[in-house]
Amino acid sequence: MKIEPGNSDSAILEEVGRRLARTRLERNLSQEQLAAESGVSKATVERLEAGAPIKSTSLIRVLRSLGLLDALDRLLPEPLPSPIERLKLEGKRRRRAGIPRRSDGKPGPWRWGDEEPPGEDE
To answer: Dihedral through CA 76, CA 82, CA 85, CA 91, nearest 10?
Structure first.
């Protein structure tokens, strides 16, 4: 069954349970072994596979034991920063070159780039 928005909550839970049971069996794990590896009770694994509601922490533990925790990251990717947040993250970026300054902080006289600085030709 395909999980779609029009499906009822119970139908979606049952399908998730079927998929997790199939994954467990493909990995040749019993419900007891999965429960022990996950740190949950066997009854919790049974309820999960039957499509009954369980705590989200139990689901996370089972997914971690089955090596499926990265599926949650794909399911709920981290939102991209808003344009305002991106500007704040970038900080102040230089957008143009500045004027060379003398040691006292004031701009020096304008010169061509190939001229010797004053006082160095002696």
So the answer is: 120
